[in-house]
Amino acid sequence: MYRQGEFDFGMPVPPRQPKRPDRAFFGLFLQPRYYGSFANLQRQLCHQHGIVGSLLSVERFHLSLQHAGDYRRLRSKIVFAASRSGQHVHMPAFEVTFGSVGSFSGRLATGGRPPHRPFVLLADDGPVFQLHKLLGAEMLKNGLKASDGFVPHLTLAYDQKFIPRQPIDPISFVACDFTFVHSMRGLTKYLFLDHWPLIAVS
User: Fold this and answer.
1) Structural domains of the chain, count
2) pLDDT tens by residue, 66-103
3) Distance CA 92, CA 200 (A)
């Protein structure tokens, strides 16, 4: 099975360990050729809106496609089902375009802790919705839960501020593959467990 590696998610370690620390999801990650343009936009937008919280490293930038679940321990049968799901999804590589920016509600202020809101780029309509739907159908066939609701986004930072959604000059990347990821919540690390190429368009 393919394993690309692991990396720090780019966020401070939370003070408490989640009850279900093993999160599994499918996502689209940027290729290195896009790092510069997305990093520049991150700096520009965070400065413009006064975002001073936890900024993600550009190597961590991704768009989540499907959430496969949160577990006390990620078992091999889940990884196997995810691998079977991914290998049966076939579609051409496509462009993802982000045309707006804003904040999600995130974690509200509780117990003396400040709010923790994702500051995100929001994607326009496009083939990413088809990939989400195809992947969800395969997940259901293989005994995994899949989500119908889908708001394609790329998280730039986490901050206390809430920024209303607003348009930006569009920025794009070409999705060439998608990845199954084990997110180690509480340790803020990712393990890349498997990936699948999208069909190159000549």
Assistant:
1) 1
2) 999 999 899 999 999 999 999 999 999 999 999 999 99
3) 6
